Amino acid sequence: MPKQKTHKGLSKRVRVTAKGKVKHKKAGSGHLMSSKNAKRRRRLGNASTMTSTLAKTARIALCK
Description:
Mean pLDDT: 93
Order of helices and strands: HEEHEH
Distance between the termini: 17 Å
Oligomer: single chain
C-alpha cells in the first residue's frame, strides 16, 4: 500500500497539539471588523479547537 499524503490545504490552516487536539483560527475575522462589537472581535482573535468528529477526520487527513 502506498503512503497517504498530507492534505496541504488543511495543514496550512490547522495545528495538532501535543495531546492530539486540533487548533484552528475562527472564521469571520478577515474584514468588516468595525460592525462587530468588541467582545466578538476579542473572541475571534483567539484560536479554537475542533469538535471530536471533525478533529478525527482532520488528523487522518494530516496523517498524524
